[in-house]
Amino acid sequence: MDLIEPAEYYDQANGGQIPVFRPTMEQFKDFKSFMEAIDPYGRHSGIVKVIPPREWKDKLPDTKHRLERIRVRNPIIQHIMGSRGMYTQTNVEKRRPYTIAQWYKLCEQSEHQPPNIGCDRTTRPIVTPNRKRDKVGNNNNEVEQQKQRQKQEQQKPPSANTRSKSAAAAAAAAAATTATISPSKNKRQILSDEIALAQSDTAVPLQQDLQCSNPEKYTVDYCKELERNYWRNLTFTQPMYGADMAGTLFDNSVRAWNVNSLDNMLNRLDVSVPGVNEPYLYFGMWKATFAWHVEDMDLYSINYLHFGAPKQWYAIPTTHTKKFESVMQNIFPQEYKECPEFLRHKTFIVSPKLLANHSIPVHRCVQHEGEFMITFPFGYHAGYNLGLNCAESVNFALDSWIEIGKRAKACSCISDSVMIDVSVFDKNNNKEEEEQEKENDNNNNNNNSDKDENITTSTTHSPSKSSVKKQQQQKRSSMTTHTIQTEQTVSKRPSPTDDDIVDTTSKPKKQKTNT
């Protein structure tokens, strides 16, 4: 497939540089070929958006019956501490499950609702409820935020050396406070009943419509207003995030772009690794955040937003990867000293404004329901959710990733760090080449058998090129292993080479926005 150019760039009128692709069904049906055709763009920008064709979306099966049996198990409470554009995030696990109906109810609480910026107070909520909202919900939220803002201003901001400790202490204090609260008997009984229901495998009927009821509301300008509110109030309330939940909302009837069964080389692994070659589900709410990071083993990733409010994404162009890492190391020197791969911890948040002050461009893109976001090797990205939603994500790899994977490093500080023995792909490639050569040899032998058998030659036979190649491949294959393991040694992540990064001088030329 030839190079596919973007239909437009997100917020192109204001200098946006995240490519947006609107493929035809013919282009879209072959995932691997399509990804190879847009790879030069993504390897420059770090992320791209793909809006699937209407005929693909129209054939997607209803996910309601699956959602009725899914549980948001042990979501995390995100405690974000810091100031002046520099923050650390500590995740505290909430040790209880939620049905999707219960998660919906939680997201409807005033403290977990986005502000109604520049909108009539009668504007419908993000999803269509089956009950009345609290009459004073949003007003109480604004008053509470103002009180917390005043309290925050009276306190001295934590220093760079104490941010992580402060976040951990605050999280521990919050957990301790939660444990000592003694709710009334009725409330305890209700909570106990809810937990018992969520722990069961019983299907819980969904009365709510989880699709975004007013997508036209989320214009570029409106999302920018929400963005300003997000950074002003980042530390004031603690959102919950149903993140890293193994599962899928796709079924086998979806052939093309099924996140649960993408055509890519990670399918050759004999081991299932959740989040890497098996998808994760993410149930978000307003302000639920994912910190700056790249993917494990510098892989690609794909994220599909099944339903709900949009996701705000930030991306660093890969031409600035080295500089971004250097700036983050200077902002968080102690963390870098303790672990050279500290950015893989996914706990460090720096505002676009602060990065811009260090001459690092930060590009923005908003993902709406029914849209894909693709991240690329060395493409640092971060973001947050604009309300109740559900996304599905998994890693994948193109053939060009093999050399990148050979140089990738992992963090040894965290127990779920992933390290892939890339030699397994060389072994598989060699096996495929040998099978192809064997087939070619058989075809040649069949053709030669038609020749006159009475004609002979008396030459001295030497090993064929194919047999020498086979011997070399067999020797190399015998030295490989077939494992996925956790990295045990700490080593500095190698910087991407010039071959890995698409230079700005060779950036694909922009297309005019389609009208």
TrEMBL record:
Please note every region of biased composition (Basic and acidic residues).
144-154
Q: What SMART domains does this protein's entry cite?
A: JmjC, JmjN
In this chain the JmjN domain maps to 18-59
Show the ranges annotated as biased composition (Low complexity).
456-478
Gene Ontology CC: one annotated term: nucleus
| Protein name, entry field | [Histone H3]-trimethyl-L-lysine(9) demethylase
Q: Could you provide one GO biological process annotation from this protein's UniProt record? A: regulation of gene expression
Spell out the molecular function terms from Gene Ontology: histone H3K36 demethylase activity; histone H3K9 demethylase activity
| Chain residue ranges for the region called Disordered | 111-171, 427-515
Q: Which residues form the JmjC domain?
A: 251-413
* Pfam families tied to this protein: JmjC (PF02373), JmjN (PF02375)
Give the organism's phylogenetic lineage. Eukaryota, Fungi, Fungi incertae sedis, Mucoromycota, Mucoromycotina
Q: Which InterPro entries match?
A: JmjC_dom (IPR003347), JmjN (IPR003349)
Polar residues: bias regions: 479-494
